[in-house]
Each structure stands twice: as structure tokens, then as C-alpha cells.
Design brief:
499 residues, alpha/beta, Rossmann fold, N-(1-d-carboxylethyl)-l-norvaline Dehydrogenase, domain 2, 2 domains, 4-stranded mixed beta sheet, 13 strands
């Protein structure tokens, strides 16, 4: 079977397939740079841009896509002229959209200079980021992690760019690439630009702004810092769409529809949501034409999503993995885990939230659980369990802190935290299957988890990079976590601890 490309793309309509208005590199001028292209961006923001451009006929928004350190996506997209499919699967229906808005894809590890030069181009009006929580080089207080190798490289790259050395600059993080690109833009005349974080961080725009400004400050570039304050906007966003790992079966199903092989295929649920703070300093695609919400305040939306959806996702991932459920869909159909997830939403999360306009939080929670149960989206429990040290503080601990301040013990948050602790300690599910620990703090986590399960909660709560003094110092929360660890340990007593 031939591979998808501009030359092999069908010219006539195909049942069940949405073809791009214009294919790949012939689609548009480059008006966007995206940092961190992976499956989620291809199934989310890139689709919104594609639909918006088709609705308005605006051809300014071709995209330069930049990977992280891995060049895998480059090898997937380059031979296909940057075309790829999004296979949308509900319980009853499957459809395929071929997306054609990416003009070029490059490796951020090998070709940062091209990304920096693109960010300096006055025809580029926006930069978007999906680099995951761990992609932001933050210290414990949320500020720049000064002294780390990545930030040291970021500062050196920013200085090199301003000294005229952009082609050889090698930032240590994606935020460093953005900062260096903004420095190059400033040096080239300083056309305004909007930088849009699309990661699961509360106040993601403010957090990105802080890191970029602190990089400029650490580099001693006061004029750049002043320009950033005037010419670069950092709106906050909330994004939501379930995008599981693509399987060979998915690729075969897409090939049946398109009659072409697609090595860059991504899979997604029908639901999608993008809420963007309406704060721009430069032109942008008409994303609202594709269903995005432009809001004066994103905080109610993002907090509801982080605490109701992401918190529940993590609870189901750790409890489900320990029980031997391979997917979130399996875990949520386990009656006991379903009840725990619903209780987390209603008893712990919802009371801490201000409902976004027009949203009923109970109905929103039920919709989330229904989405999780989609059998065609096999999002694995171990995939969701990744990077727990980065996810727990914003998905569960903020909720727990608010409940504690209200005088209530957040027992479902404690259960989710305890499940994470037992997951780290055991390293195996109830049947003895290995559970991988994929986390930037894996070495420390294993060290703290080592030893008897009695005392596990106290050892793990002592990791101050995860648990702040208010959480770790709460006798009520500590007691609830201890109780939950003991209960989970008894249930998994026949699974051998990790060695």
C-alpha cells in the first residue's frame, strides 16, 4: 500500500474521510510555530487551526512544528509531506480527517536554530506549546530552576542570539527555544507576538510568562525584558481531548478508509475543548470558528478540568493499574473504581470549584466518566500514571489543600495519593505484572519507597518537592493517606514488592 503524501492524497471525496482544503506544504504561509509536536497537538490545536482556516479561507496560518529531543515525529511526517490523519472514534462511529496545515517539521534537539529564526519572522504571529508539565524548567516555587543544566543552556543560548549567534544556539529546554526566538525577534525589530501555552498547568500563560521573563532577567538583558512586557502576550488556556496511543489496529482501520498507509496517524475521541484567554497582541486564526471559546477568564474552566477530569484520570490510573486493569476504559467500568472516581469529583473536587459559565459540575463529571468508558480509546493506565511527581500537585493536592482549609478531610484525594505511593512501592499489579515507573524523579521515588509498607506514607510525604508543608503537615491528610495505603497494601498483598 502506498504511503500518504501530497502526491498520493485522493482528489475525490471518500466516504467517512474529511480531506484538507489544500494539502500540506502548499497550504499556507507560515504564521504559527508550535513547540512540542506530539499526538495531542496533532489531534487538538492543529485540528482547530485546520477547521478555522477552512471556515474563513484565511491562508496565513501554515505551521512550523518543532519536536522535543526525539526526532520520531520528523520521521513520521516528513515522508508524508507533513500530512497525517486523525481517526476519531466514538462507541458507535469512526471517522477520519486528514490534516494539511503543517508546512514543516523539525527536530528541536538537532535544529533549534531554525525554530529560533522562525520565531523572529514577522509573518509568524503566534507560538503554541504542548511540552507537558515536566517541560517547564521550574523550581519548587514555580520560578526558573536556576543552576540546572537546562536553564544554564537556555541563558547561554539567549545571550548568543542577541550577540548574533542564533544558528549555533542550543537551548536546554523548549521554553529556552521560545525565549531565544523572542530575543531574535526583538533584535530583528520586535514585531508583537502571542505565546500560548496549552499544557495542563494552572495559569499556564502566567507561568510561561514568568519563566521567559526570568530567563531574560537572568541573562542580564533589561531592554529585552522591557520589550517582552510590551510586545508579547501570554494568554492562559484550557485544553481537553483524550488522545490515546495509536496502535497497529488503528493504522489498519485508517488505511481501510483512506486506502493509504499513514505512519503519523493519531487517534482521538469526538469531544474536544479549547478555552483561550482573549488576550492577543497580534493576528491569530479564527479559532472560535472551529469551536474554541474565547474567554475573559480561563481559570474556572481550567480548574474544573484539572480537578474533575485530570484528578479523576490519575485516581483511575493508579487504582486501575494496581488491580490489573490495562486501560482507563477497563478501570472506569470496575464498579468500585467508578464509585471512587464519582466520589472524588462530587465530594472533594466540586466543592472547591466555581462553575464555569453554563456548566453544571455534576453533569460535567458524569460526562467525563462516560468519555473515559469509550472502549475504542484504550488509554492505558500506565500511560496516564507517568510523571506522577509532576501531576499530583496540580491534579490532586491543590484540591486537597482547599478541602483541608474548609475543615474537611479530602479522603478521595488521599486515596489517589496512596494509590500512587503503592504503585511506586510495589512496581507490580495484583497479578504480578510489572508496572513501569516513568517519572523525572524516579530515582528519588524508589529510594523513599524502599522498605516496609508500614511507614510508606510518611516516607513519601517527606518529599518536599511534591508535598508542601501545609499538605505534609496536616495530621488529617497524613492519617487518611496512611489508612488508604494500609487498605491498598492488604488488597495487593500477594503482589511482590519491587526490588
Amino acid at each position: 500500500m502506498q504511503r500518504l503524501s501530497a502526491g498520493t492524497l485522493p482528489k475525490a471525496p471518500i466516504t467517512g474521510v474529511q480531506l484538507p482544503r489544500r494539502p500540506g506544504r502548499e497550504n499556507a504561509r507560515t504564521g504559527l510555530v508550535h513547540l512540542g509536536i506530539g499526538a495531542f497537538h496533532r489531534a487538538h490545536q492543529a485540528v482547530y487551526t485546520e477547521v478555522a482556516c477552512a471556515a474563513t479561507g484565511d491562508d496565513r496560518w501554515g505551521e512550523l512544528a518543532v519536536t522535543g529531543r526525539s526526532a520520531t515525529v520528523v520521521h513520521q511526517l516528513e515522508p508524508q509531506d507533513c500530512l497525517y490523519g486523525v481517526l476519531t472514534k466514538s462507541a458507535d462511529e469512526t471517522a477520519l480527517r486528514v490534516v494539511g496545515g503543517i508546512r514543516r517539521v523539525i527536530s528541536g534537539g538537532d535544529d533549534a536554530g531554525t525554530a529560533i529564526a522562525a520565531l523572529a519572522d514577522p509573518d509568524v504571529h503566534a507560538a503554541t506549546l504542548t511540552i507537558t508539565e515536566k517541560g517547564y524548567p521550574r523550581a519548587a516555587d514555580g520560578g526558573l530552576a536556576l543552576g540546572t543544566d537546562a536553564v544554564t543552556a537556555d541563558i547561554a543560548a539567549l545571550r548568543a542570539v542577541l550577540a548574533g549567534g542564533a544558528p549555533g544556539a542550543r537551548p536546554g529546554s523548549s521554553v529556552g527555544v521560545l525565549a531565544a526566538g523572542l530575543a531574535a525577534r526583538f533584535a530583528a525589530g520586535g514585531a508583537p507576538i502571542t505565546a500560548i501555552s496549552c499544557d495542563n498547568l494552572p495559569g499556564n500563560g502566567s507561568q510561561l510568562r514568568r519563566l521567559v521573563h526570568e530567563l531574560a532577567d537572568a541573562a542580564g538583558e533589561s531592554e529585552l525584558l522591557a520589550w517582552l512586557g510590551k510586545a508579547v502576550a501570554f494568554p492562559s488556556t484550557m485544553v481537553d481531548r483524550i488522545v490515546p496511543a495509536t496502535t497497529d489496529r488503528d493504522r489498519a482501520e485508517a488505511a481501510q478508509l483512506l486506502h493509504l498507509q499513514d505512519e503519523a496517524l493519531v487517534v482521538a475521541e469526538p469531544f474536544g475543548q479549547w478555552v483561550i484567554e482573549d488576550r492577543f497582541v497580534a493576528p491569530r486564526p479564527a479559532w472560535e470558528e472551529a469551536g474554541a471559546t474565547l474567554a475573559a477568564d480561563v481559570a474556572p474552566y481550567e480548574m474544573a478540568k484539572l480537578r474533575m477530569l485530570n484528578g479523576t484520570h490519575s485516581l483511575l490510573a493508579y487504582l486501575g493499574a494496581l488491580r490489573g486493569h490495562r486501560t482507563i476504559a477497563e478501570a472506569v467500568t470496575d464498579p468500585e473504581l467508578y464509585d471512587a472516581a464519582r466520589a472524588l469529583q462530587r465530594q472533594d473536587a466540586a466543592p472547591t470549584l466555581e462553575a464555569p459559565p453554563g456548566v453544571d459540575l455534576a453533569a460535567y463529571g458524569d460526562q467525563i466518566l462516560q468519555r473515559f468508558a469509550n472502549p475504542h480509546l484504550p488509554h492505558t493506565t500506565v500511560q496516564v500514571a507517568m510523571d506522577g511527581s509532576q501531576k499530583l500537585p496540580i491534579r490532586l493536592l491543590d484540591t486537597a489543600r482547599d478541602r483541608l482549609r474548609a475543615g474537611v478531610t479530602p479522603r478521595l484525594c488521599a486515596l489517589a495519593v496512596a494509590a500512587w505511593m503503592v504503585y511506586v512501592h510495589r512496581g507490580r499489579d495484583a497479578s504480578g505484572r510489572e508496572l513501569p515507573l516513568n517519572d523525572p524523579m524516579a530515582t528519588l521515588l524508589r529510594e523513599r519507597a524502599a522498605g516496609p509498607e508500614r511507614g510508606l506514607a510518611d516516607r513519601m510525604l517527606g518529599i518536599d518537592a511534591i508535598f508542601d508543608a501545609e499538605i505534609a503537615g496536616s495530621d488529617d491528610f497524613r492519617g487518611a493517606v496512611r489508612d488508604a495505603v494500609a487498605t491498598l497494601a492488604r488488597r495487593n498483598s500477594h503482589a511482590a514488592p519491587q526490588r
